[in-house]
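Hey,

Quick one before I head out. I ran the complex with iron/sulfur cluster overnight. Inputs first:
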Amino acid sequence: MAVGVFDLFSIGIGPSSSHTVGPMRAAAVFAGELKESGALDRVASLRVDLYGSLAATGRGHGTMTAVLLGLEGYHPEVILPEEVEERLASIAGTGTLNLAGAVDPGAGPESGVALPYGESDMILHPLTVLPRHTNGMKFSVSGADGEVLHEATFFSVGGGFIVREGEEDAARKELEESKKELPLPFRTAAELMGRCASKGLGISDIMFINERASRSEEEIREGLLHIWSVMEACVETSLKREGVLPGGLKVRRRAPDWHERLLKETKDQDPDYRDPKYWQEWVNLIALAVNEENASGGRVVTAPTNGAAGIIPAVLYYALHFAPGMDKATQADRDDVVVKFLLAAGAVGVLYKEQASISGAEVGCQGEVGSASSMAAAGLAEVMGGSPAQVENAAEIAMEHNLGLTCDPIGGLVQIPCIERNAIAAAKAINAAKMALWGDGTHRVSLDEVIVTMRETGKDMSSKYKETAMGGLAVNVVEC
Ligand code: SF4
């Protein structure tokens, strides 16, 4: 299927879309196939191989535990954070994996196979990169006689998307075919602008028309409002959770204190009123809250990745509370803003997926935080009344000033620099939208040019700076 807005904004668990969500999804697919093959009952042993970036930063990103949950049959969209804790405690306590037990929830956990599991069953190859992508993983199960019953290799290519080895060309072909079914397909910003001009429509309208190829209007609207409600719930949960983030870096959660302070600063005002004087603090707060929740393995919306999950909610929050005229907006107006914002941001996300990458392991943090900042800038410019050219300009400005951003998280954890980086990138997105809206849409560098530059910069970037925790902050800061 062609990439749509619901692929770019999917619900999952933290801390990483490529290192947690993708591997869990791949392992769950493998478990489902195994069950369907009828060979599940004969499985006596399991072997998992993790390659490249998955092996290098997998521990900090929760890859190993995500794979175990996936092998039990859990999918990132549906598993609850409580279930994660409960299942991982059980696996650790019993040394047994309930292989494929959750593939069909209606069948009950006893439908799986209790398989002894030890750390040595998962082998890490941080220095080996498989040809297709640095985030490679191989699953294999054998019977008591050593016969391989099922095996498969997958790649987690960013944003929770997975590709199976050997099916890359078929997947690409299917994608190209499915795009033909879209009423207004586009691959580049130039094509998108052309569609807008020929139809006299905005960017969010083009995206909406394309989405209608696979869903009704109500489903699109309800689906996008649900995405926003999950973003809001993520913030709400985070604001109640104090203490230190997991992983050993001793990073304190700041969002609850900041929230309290903001409420104190404005205590004499209507609790729903947001004083424009504090817009920056609110944006920072939302970004921090989402990313702290993500870092603790909570429920987040991948937007378009988990590491960059705080930027779009923070900028959308700004649009809903601080954009001109929003003080008089009705609930229906606010819902319109959410839908329009996410559609325009999604359209720009498609451009990054089509022409470059949203995987930090492939192109560095510019592909994650940069893409999210660019998407958010487009969303904000759209809901603030920007023309297609101004929206494109906003997206371009935001990415231009994220070019070269490296991924070197300390300890391989999605905490430093990731959490604060989301707040900074949200502010950049807001500034980019404002700059674009004060122009007339004409600009020297096109969005396509900056996307290609991001891709090429990513290609040239040393692998030390692409989610391997082997360079930059990861080696220059003492972990404890
Ligand atoms: S530095 Fe950026 S790309 Fe790397 S894990 Fe953090 S947010 Fe993701």
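The mean pLDDT is 94.

Talk tomorrow,
K.
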